[in-house]
Amino acid sequence: MKKIVLAGGCFWGVEAYFNNISGVMKTKVGYANGNTENPNYEGVCTHSTGYAEACYIEYNEENITLEKLLEAYWIIVDPTVKDRQGNDIGNQYRTGIYYIDEEDYKAILKSVEREQEKYDSNIVTEILALKNFYDAEEYHQRYLQKNPNGYCHIPRELLR
C-alpha cells in the first residue's frame, strides 16, 4: 500500500470524502507536522502546537494513482486560502500535502502546477515531507459516519 497524508480543513469531512474513493483502503484522522509530542484536540485548537488536522490515507496504487488522488483532493479545498477552509479558521485548518515516499514529491509538484492554472491567487498549500502524525482521539475517527448530521465544510453531495 502507498501512503499519503492530506490536510484540508476539518478532518471529519476529508476522511469521509476519501473513504468513498475507490482504491483508498484505509483512512484515519489525526494531527500532522506539529512541534509537540502526543497532541490532543484541545491543544491543537489553541493554535500553538503547529499541527494540521489531517487524514492519513493508505491506497492501492493498482486501483488509484497518486495523481488521481490529488485530483480528488483539489475538488474539496480552496488551496489559495491560508489557515482556513469554509467556516474553520486557524492554522490547524490549513491545506497540506505531506508525503511519506520521497518519490511522490515530483508528482505532487506537477499536480500543484496543474492546479495553479485555475487560480489568479497563489496556491498556499503546504507540500512537505511528513515529519510526524498522531492519531486523533477515537471520537474523531469516522466522525461523520457516527454523526451523519455533524458539521462539515465539504458539500454533502461530495460525501455520497
TrEMBL record:
Function: Has an important function as a repair enzyme for proteins that have been inactivated by oxidation. Catalyzes the reversible oxidation-reduction of methionine sulfoxide in proteins to methionine.
UniProt keyword list: Oxidoreductase
Transmembrane segments: none
Gene: msrA
One cellular component (GO) term of this entry: cytoplasm
Domain Peptide methionine sulphoxide reductase MsrA span(s) in chain numbering: 3-153
Reaction(s) catalysed by this chain's protein: [thioredoxin]-disulfide + L-methionine + H2O = L-methionine (S)-S-oxide + [thioredoxin]-dithiol; L-methionyl-[protein] + [thioredoxin]-disulfide + H2O = L-methionyl-(S)-S-oxide-[protein] + [thioredoxin]-dithiol
Superkingdom of source: Bacteria
Name used for this protein in its record: Peptide methionine sulfoxide reductase MsrA
EC number, UniProt record: 1.8.4.11
NCBIfam families cross-referenced by the UniProt entry: msrA
SUPFAM superfamilies assigned to the protein according to its UniProt record, in alphabetical order: Peptide methionine sulfoxide reductase
Active-site residue list: C10
Family: Belongs to the MsrA Met sulfoxide reductase family.
Protein's GO biological process: cellular response to oxidative stress
Stored InterPro entries: Met_Sox_Rdtase_MsrA_dom (IPR002569), Met_Sox_Rdtase_MsrA_sf (IPR036509), MsrA_MetSO_reductase (IPR050162)
